[in-house]
Every structure is written in structure tokens, then in C-alpha cells.
Amino acid sequence: MAVTVVVGSQWGDEGKGKVVDLLASQFDVVARYQGGANAGHTIKWGDTTQVLHLLPSGVFASGVHCLIGNGVVIDPKALVSEIQKVQELGYDLEGRLWISRNAHCILPYHQALESVRSADRIGTTKRGIGPAYTDKIARTGIRIGELIDRDAFFKRLQVEVAQKNLVLRGAYGERELDAEEIFSEYTGYAEQLQEYVTDTTHFLHEALDQGKQILAEGAQGCLLDIDFGTYPYVTSSSPTAGGVCTGLGVSPTAILRIIGITKAYCTRVGHGPFPTELTDHTGAHLQKTGGEFGATTGRPRRCGWLDLVALRYSCRLNGFSELALTKLDVLSGLETVKVCVEYEQGGAADSRFTNDAQALEAVTPRYEVMQGWKEDICGCRKFEALPDAAKELVHRIQSFTGIPVTMISTGPRRSQTIQVDC
Ligand code: IMP
Fold it and tell me: Distance (Å, rounded) from C-alpha 264 to C-alpha 330?
């Protein structure tokens, strides 16, 4: 029995979608374990580009089961529209998409609350993620299992909408929401989702007993983790490998392989500390060349040099068995490439990452300056074919983190990938 995990090692947008799509056909099940439609996993093949927000990135691999675990918060409206989109592309989901009955729903009041609360302090995706996880922890959430039970849903919705209206109207002077309106719209989505809803934990346990291979797909990145990220500038779930156990119901001992995805530079969307951020022309170059605009919100991503201090923290948090390095091609053409190897504060150097947002805001990165390369590497299919300077960067990442780089992505397409023998 074996679970492989794909985790973002930075602030999200590392290219997890591409890696999961590439690996999916080697697995029996691909399972999302946390987050919601705040994620935007981009998959590109031929002339086709697809962005998935809730469906696992295994949907385009035929015969592979796709599962949305209990740790995910599901916007039923968004999921129904994504299912329709994928079906229109000719991919049948009947009998291979499974949605946890314990996953919590994102309902219109979650988005309404997010838009009036202090969310802008963080720069959220405005998908209602935080308020839905708040309800989950407060034990007032409505789960998918209740959504598909008309009577239970109506009762719960009336109570919740009344409560939320007290806040929306009383505290923020907002328009009240109508429980009956939401009910009639959302029972329509429930009818369309019903056939996929099951006990996904049981499903996974049986799959593991039968020796099936499971690929757990993380969303966001571990520097956005609710506990280990730069709180409060984080998402409301656990993208770390630890989140797999609580988000799917598999045991830690079933996890055999953990792949950390890292871009060859760093990006961040929304607010929060970012020691290696570049606000100069190099940052603008990375943003333009890397197409660094949010797949969900379209917001420009902040860009900066690769932060090895932060990456090593991610390696330790997650126990990565290997790293997949993405977007190496974006660095082509730069005279020099920098990697941050220490932080400096008050004249003292520190090689440890801190997730204290205020403290991290105050550090100055110390860089190692490496030779850049001029060649376009998009066509490289073998490690040996890379320019020496690019190989040097890969070696430095390995030596600093102690983790082997087993995959290098040199472009968005499936074919633009180097498998590294280590
Ligand atoms: P939320 O997850 O919408 O609550 O947003 C919280 C923070 O996480 C914000 O800074 C978002 O920009 C960031 N965030 C959420 N999802 C993603 C993602 O998929 N990629 C990158 N950043 C994300």
C-alpha cells in the first residue's frame, strides 16, 4: 500500500498541476486533500490549456479515479461548473469521481462574510475559504452529506443564514441573504453532485488494502500553511504533507514518497513577508517571462529569487523524499542568478527560516550569486543537455537542502520535462 504526495514548497503556484498530471497515469487514484477553489492548477498539452480549481489534476488521465477529500472546502456551484467543463471536453467522470460526504460546503454567506471582513489585510482569493473553514472548526459548517439530504439541508441552512444575517446586517449593514433562495439554487447543485458523494476514507482504505497506488495532491504551498506559514498571511488549511492524513483519512505510515515542488525562483500572491522579493526590472522580467498572473484571480504575482532558507524549512516540515524543480526555463537569459542562503538581521546572520511574519519582514536576504545562462532550455530532455550554469543551480539546491532533484520542468507542456536519475 502506498501514498505519494505532491506538496507545494513555497507560497503556492509552484506547478503542482503539471506534475500531478504527468504522474497521474502511474496511479490508481488522485486525491485532493485540502484547500478549495482558491487553487488554480494549470495543465497544458498540445494546444489545450485547462485550469482546475477543485477537481484533482488526474481528471485528464483515463481510468484514474479522482477524489475530493474531507479536508477540502467545496463550493458546489464552482464544482458543478467544473465538472460540466471537463465533461464537455470529452472526459467521463461517472464512476471515477468521488466526493467526500464529510467535506464542508462553501455557501454564499461565506463569500459575503469574506468580502466584508478584514480579508483585504491578507489579500485572499475571495472564494470564501476562510469563513468556510471557520464554520468547520466552530462545528457550524454544512457538509456535502447534508447538502444532498434536502430536509437536513433546509433545516441547517435556515439556522445558519439567520445567524450569518445577524452579522452581515448588524455588524456590516449589508443586505440580508435569503435562505429559501439559496436552498432552491443549491439543491439543484446537490442533485448534480449526489452520484459522486461517498465515504472517501473508506474508499481509500479499501484501495490501499488492494495494493492500489494513491497520489495525494496538495493545493497552495506550505509557506501558506495555517500553522507553519507566515500567519496571518496564510490560507486556512494545511497544505503540508501532514494535511494528507487529516484531509483524506490515510495513516502517516501509508505515505511512502513526498515530492516537494519548487519553482526555480519564488512568487507570492496577496500580502505577507517575502524576503527575496524583487521590485526592480528583474522581478518584472520574471513576472512577464514566467507568466506570473494568478490562475484563479488573475492578480499579478510578486516575484523574487529562490529562497533556499525557506525551501530547507519546507523540506524539514514535509520530509520531502525528492524535489521537482519547475520553471527553470524562466531564468534563461539572465546574466546572473541569485539564491538566498542566509537571512541577516541587526548585523547577525541566521540560516533558519522564521514563520513569524513580523520577524521575517525585518530580515535582509544574503545571496550566493551564480552564473546565468543564455541558452533557451525549453527543448532539453536530458539533464546532460542543460547548460553547465543551470546544472550548477540544480546541484546547489540539492547540496543546500540535502534532497535530490528528480524532475526538472523546462516549460508548461508535459513533454517539457527532464527526469533526473540520481
Ligand atoms: P485564501 O486561501 O483565499 O483565504 O487566501 C489566503 C492567502 O493565500 C492569500 O494571500 C492568497 O493570495 C493565498 N492563496 C490562496 N490560494 C492560493 C493559490 O492557489 N496560490 C497562491 N496563493 C494562494
Answer: 8
Tell me the per-residue pLDDT of 226-261, one tens digit each, with 9 for 90 and over.
Answer: 999 999 999 999 999 999 999 999 999 999 999 999
Distance 124 CA to ligand 1 centre (A): 6
pLDDT digits (tens, 9 = 90+) for 396-422: 999 999 999 999 999 999 899 999 975
Q: Which domains does the chain have, with CATH numbers?
A: 2-100+196-259 (3.40.440.10), 104-192 (1.10.300.10), 262-419 (3.90.170.10)
Rounded to whole angstroms, how far apart are CA atoms 289 and 261?
19
Catalytic residues: 13, 41
* Cβ atoms 258, 218 nearer than 8 A: no
Protein residue with its CA nearest to atom 1 in ligand 1: 124
Whole-angstrom distance, CA of residue 310 vs CA of residue 353: 6
- Ligand 1, pocket-test mutation among 11, 124, 127, most atoms within 8 A of CB: 124
Q: How far apart are CA 36 and CA 79, in angstroms?
A: 10
Indicate the DSSP class of residue 384: G
The pTM (predicted TM-score) of the whole model is 0.96
Q: Which residue, among 314, 326, 332, 242, has the nearest Cα to 13 in the 3D structure?
A: 326
pLDDT at 119: 55
Find the residues whose C-beta lies inside 6 A of ligand 1: 11-13, 38-40, 122-125, 127, 129-130, 219-220, 224, 233, 235-236, 269-270
The number of CA neighbours under 13 Å toward the Cβ of 43 is 21
